[in-house]
């Protein structure tokens, strides 16, 4: 079982990277005489957790696929499919007047659609050995067309009307704890579920035989095959899981926003790509990926917070914050070791 010390040792690059980002942000804030107390508020932290949720879900899925030896670059496309499907299903199920229960049904429907799509995608990449980069990019481009098409089909517009956003879950007594209460115990149930899922994904990958199989499929598939485990089946499971998780990430994004935007890069807006960077930054560890997702979520919410406190910064400049963070992360990522057999096809011996 991996303990905290082992986690810190294996992810020292990612932890150092987060520390550098936070230190750089603090130095910049002091140099610019920014009111940190007004910027880093409880509300800001809570919104950062919510913004990190779809990124973290996508990162976990992509991490599992790549750990098994398959680079699922199509997670951005899966997120678009997930968001568009959740929006249209919420509208259809509710008859145009969605409520809280309709959100959960829409998320479930989105996961089922993502499951079917992920199975087809896995067959294309594993059985027919399609180029993983080309297949992933193709899925992304299809998603960019699918989202607006569904919106126009249902609402005669690329953007949906106001739907319904998920309500916070308040835990009595605990929610009254100063600072931590509103952040941890009076927040979206999707945030709580994601935090639990991150821990479960970490334990599963590091403390179960199935998790070891996934890692072996990406590191030494021949040895795994020799041990009597079907490498192809392991990779199928991992890729399908990654597609479902990315689709769930898109559905969660929709549930938080309360409406679908199909214009431009769609409402997903590159979060799938950031999810890939998150698990690379986290050194292929779900806990590290979750921390990285929180950093990116905070950078994304920073633009709103600066406007709230009356700091005049051009919107286009502030919108670049998450991507500047990505560049800084990628500069650290050079020391992260990818699984040895990523991108290599393998046929299990019968």
Question: In brief, what are we looking at here?
Answer:
This protein is an all-alpha fold and 350 residues long. It is 71% helix and 1% strand.
Write the layout of secondary structure elements.
Blueprint: H1 4-10, H2 12-31, H3 36-39, H4 42-67, H5 75-94, H6 100-127, H7 132-155, E1 169-170, H8 180-184, E2 186-187, H9 189-207, H10 209-219, H11 221-226, H12 231-257, H13 271-281, H14 286-308, H15 315-318, H16 321-333
Total helices: the number is 16
How far apart the termini lie comes to 32 Å
Q: What structural class do you assign from the helix and strand content?
A: mainly alpha
Shape: globular
What would you say this structure looks like, in words?
The structure is a single chain. This protein has 350 residues and is an all-alpha fold. It has helices spanning 4-10, 12-31, 36-39, 42-67, 75-94, 100-127, 132-155, 180-184, 189-207, 209-219, 221-226, 231-257, 271-281, 286-308, 315-318, 321-333, and strands at residues 169-170, 186-187. A two-stranded antiparallel ribbon has the order 1-2. Helix 5 packs parallel to helix 7 (132-155) and helix 6 runs antiparallel to helix 12. It is globular, with a radius of gyration of 20 Å. The mean pLDDT is 87.
């Amino acid at each position: 079982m991996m303990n905290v010390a082992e986690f810190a040792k294996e992810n020292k690059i990612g932890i150092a990277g987060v520390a550098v980002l936070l230190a750089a942000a603090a130095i910049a804030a002091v140099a610019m005489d920014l009111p940190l107390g007004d910027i880093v508020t409880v509300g800001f932290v809570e919104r950062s957790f919510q913004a990190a949720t779809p990124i973290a879900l996508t990162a976990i899925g992509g991490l599992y696929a790549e750990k098994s030896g398959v680079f699922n670059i199509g997670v951005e496309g899966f997120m678009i499919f997930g968001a568009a499907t959740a929006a249209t299903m919420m509208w259809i199920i509710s008859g145009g007047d969605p409520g809280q229960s309709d959100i959960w049904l829409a998320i479930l429907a989105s996961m089922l659609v993502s499951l079917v799509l992920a199975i087809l995608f896995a067959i294309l990449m594993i059985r027919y050995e399609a180029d993983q980069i080309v297949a992933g990019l193709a899925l992304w481009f299809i998603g960019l067309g699918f989202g607006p098409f569904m919106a126009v089909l249902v609402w005669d517009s690329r953007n949906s009307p106001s739907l319904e956003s998920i309500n916070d879950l308040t835990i009595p007594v605990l929610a009254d704890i100063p600072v931590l209460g509103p952040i941890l115990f009076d927040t979206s149930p999707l945030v709580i579920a994601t935090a639990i899922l991150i821990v479960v994904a970490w334990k599963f990958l590091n403390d179960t035989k199935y998790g070891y199989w996934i890692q072996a499929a990406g590191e030494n598939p021949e040895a795994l095959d020799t041990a009597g485990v079907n490498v192809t089946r392991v990779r199928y499971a991992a890729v399908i899981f990654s597609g479902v998780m990315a689709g769930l990430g898109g559905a969660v994004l929709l549930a938080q926003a309360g409406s679908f935007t199909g214009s431009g890069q769609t409402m997903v807006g590159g979060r799938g790509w950031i999810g890939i960077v998150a698990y690379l930054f986290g050194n292929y560890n779900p806990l590290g990926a979750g921390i990285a997702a929180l950093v990116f979520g905070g950078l994304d919410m920073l633009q709103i917070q600066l406007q709230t406190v009356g700091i005049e910064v051009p919107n286009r400049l502030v919108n670049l914050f998450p991507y500047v963070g990505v560049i800084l992360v990628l500069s650290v990522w050079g020391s992260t070791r990818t699984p040895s057999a990523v991108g290599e096809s393998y046929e299990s011996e019968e």
